[in-house]
Amino acid sequence: MQTLLNTTQLQRQNQEFMGTGGRSEENRPCGFRPAFMDIDTHTVYESRFADGRPAPIHVLDGLPDELVVARSSSGRIAAVKASVIAGFVLATRFYNREEAAHFISALVS
User: Fold this and answer.
1) pLDDT of amino acid 1
2) pTM of the model
3) Which residue in 4, 21, 51, 85 could disulfide with 79, CB within 3.0 to 4.6 Å?
């Protein structure tokens, strides 16, 4: 059983990928943009704030309602479907965190 993606999971991923290039702060200079992919449909969603502006980090609030499985009492997205993963878009290609880290490590090697 997969775990629902929520802000706690995103924070854990940021810790896990610290220093690897698998975080927005580390790969943004290379043109990566934070995004999510629903692995069931292969649909990619660039990370956006609730008002639609592009977000510089992974933010759940801009994801469409069909992905949302839980909201906080204030209406913010608390969790999305377990099939949604965090990653990045470079040009038109989606990279999961591991792929982005590998791409960045190849650049500095």
Assistant:
1) 58
2) 0.94
3) 4
